[in-house]
Amino acid sequence: MMDAPIPFITTGEDGTGLSVNPQAKEILRQITKPMVIVSVVGMYRTGKSFLLNCLMGKTDGFPLGATVEAKTKGIWMWTGDFPNDPSKAMVLLDTEGLHDPEKGSRTHDAEIFTLAVLLSSILIYNSKGAIDSNSLDGLHLATELTNHISMKAEGEETGDEFAKFFPMLIWAVRDHHLELTVDGRDITAKEYLEKCLALKRGRGKDVTNYNALRETIRAFFKNRSCFLFPLPTAMDNLKNLEKLQMNELDPKFIKIGYEFTEFIFKNGLCKMISGKEVTGGMFSTLSEKYVEAIATGNVNIESAYDYMIQTENSKAIEKAALQYHNQMNSLMFPVTLEVLNKENMKAQNQATDIFLNTAVNNDRNRQYFQNLNQLLEQFYQEYVAKNHTASDNKCEGILKNLYKEIEAQVEKGEFTRPGGHASYKDLILNLEKNYGQIPDSEKGPSGQLTLLRFRSEKIEPKLSTLLQTDKALSDEQKKQEQLKLEIEDKERMKLLLEEQNSALKKQQNEIKESYENNLRKQKEEFARQHDQDMKNLQTNMKLAMEEKERLMKEGFEEHANLMQEELRDAKEDIAEKERNQKELQEKMKNEMDDKISKMKEEEKERVKRIEEMQAKVEEGNRGGGGLFSALGSALDSVLGVGRLLKGFKI
């Protein structure tokens, strides 16, 4: 939580020109929770800042001032936890007062108002006295929004479509003193607002002008409410308002203030984009894009959203990839294949969660998740290769160290005597025994492979030479010894292939489990965002129907009939999104079935390759180096089987 508000959107020295404060961007990027964004707009010196201070639960947060000088320039920001729901964040935005004579720039007012509307999930319009022509004039900028904003990147659009993207409007009337009665009947603040926004019957310029602003407000802000505040304290004490504690204010004011804050806290409307709650990073990027677009005079909501989604989804991939590497690099290579796979699944789950929690995921943006999957597959294969290399080097170093004394004796010719073959073989058996006592957790996955390679390259040639030259052995003994060596070699190869087959089968099952788990998470997040999007569309349609009913009651049947088209479009939009969701679910199911089918085919191929290798080993003989050739081919093939798994990992 921030101790005090800071500038968010700053203005140039001349009071115009807009830019996003880097300090504010940095603070926002630390917010990973869904955000309720509350902006307050209104005429200058009408006490806008005080309303936001009420939401902060204090009277000295945003600068108030006690003179006619407007205190707030640009847009100020305060962030903290959302009351009663720490899973959300609250962002309060205090805007520069409209129609400040010191500025003399109506364009600047329009820019500030446009930003407040586009960035908020709740927009508070603050006015004084009553809802009359003067206070309504402060909202006249709403009629100019379509001059500054377009919604679609292309195609026709209507003003009603903007309501889907615009915030809830809360009209806060300060220093209100009128009685809330109509024809002797008490009315609520909400009814008072609707009465003031009711259209007039008749023709002529005055009636047209009267209705134009009201029609715009009703079309843009279908979700609206109203709160009527009495004076907070005696007139002569208003200059000390910033120093007063809440319990020193007028009880009636405190009561309305409590109802006002509780209404906002109860509604808790998060800023949403395509069913996804906006987080700090998304909000920062969107703010920059809007400020940039305002400077060029071309604010397009759809383009800004697309840019934000592209930017933040790309960043989400980077964050997910970084987390994956951080988790995998915690390993001290080499490790066993089991440990590597377990850590990979953990790292991949973390990376997937980070992406799904921070990215906008729908049928239009699936490529980002697919790109992440491809990266994770690539990273996994790189760590498999890194682990094998580390294991090869480690095991080779161990074997060289164990063989060092034996090699020294070989160089001295100590085994060229009669019986030297048996002495050399005994030392090798002892070497293998010592090597086997070293745990796999230290050697990694290449322990048996490296030993066989070491025997093939270093030991077997020397054993063969010593066998043929050992005068202590008869020709028959040499023949029997050679046959025994071939059988032992075959047994070693069989054992190697069985171990590799078992390890690869287990690895494949874990990969399949990880694939299904990640796809399930993706489907759940897609469904959650779709459901939220549907909920928002249903709410908008309900508000449109209520607006139609009000128009009918006011006698504007023609206007109400025009809304029938809007309602029809809303229903078609909902139906289309439902169809798209069903198609997406079916597509994802088919993709999973295809992937599982491919895995099964690869399983058959792997078994076939293992069986072929086992047959080659059985056929191998030492004559002409046949078994050595089979051994080399088998080793290469085993490594090739490992590569078969490439493409499984999502």
Structural class: alpha/beta
Helical segment tally? Answer: 19
| Radius of gyration over all CA atoms, rounded | 37 Å
First-residue to last-residue Cα separation: 38 Å
Report the mean per-residue pLDDT as an integer.
83
Percent strand equals 5-15%
Q: Biggest sheet: strands, sense, closure?
A: 8 strands, mixed
Number of extended strands: 14
Per the principal axes of the C-alpha atoms, what is the gross shape? elongated
State the helicity in percent bands: 55-70%
Spans of at least 5 consecutive residues whose pLDDT stays below 50 are 64-70, 622-629, 638-650
- For the biggest β-sheet, the strand order reads 2-1-4-5-3-6-8-11
Q: Can you walk me through this structure?
A:
The chain has 650 residues and is an alpha/beta fold. Helices cover 62% and strands 10% of the residues. The protein contains 19 helices and 14 strands. The strands form four sheets. It has an eight-stranded mixed beta sheet with strand order 2-1-4-5-3-6-8-11, sandwiched between helices.
In short:
Helix content is 62%, strand content 10%.
Keywords:
two-stranded parallel ribbon; 650 residues; alpha/beta; 19 helices; 14 strands
Write the layout of secondary structure elements.
Layout lengths: L5 E6 L6 E3 L1 H8 L5 E8 L5 H9 L18 E7 L7 E7 L10 H14 L2 E7 L4 H6 L6 H4 E2 L8 H4 L5 E7 L6 E2 L2 E2 L2 H8 L8 H16 L3 E5 L22 H17 L4 E2 L2 E2 L2 H17 L2 E2 H28 L8 H22 L7 H46 L8 H18 L2 H4 L3 H23 L5 H79 L3 H63 L6 H19 L6
Helix pairs in contact: 1-10, 3-10, 10-11, 11-12, 11-13, 12-13, 12-17, 13-14, 13-16, 14-16, 16-17, 16-19, 17-18, 17-19, 18-19
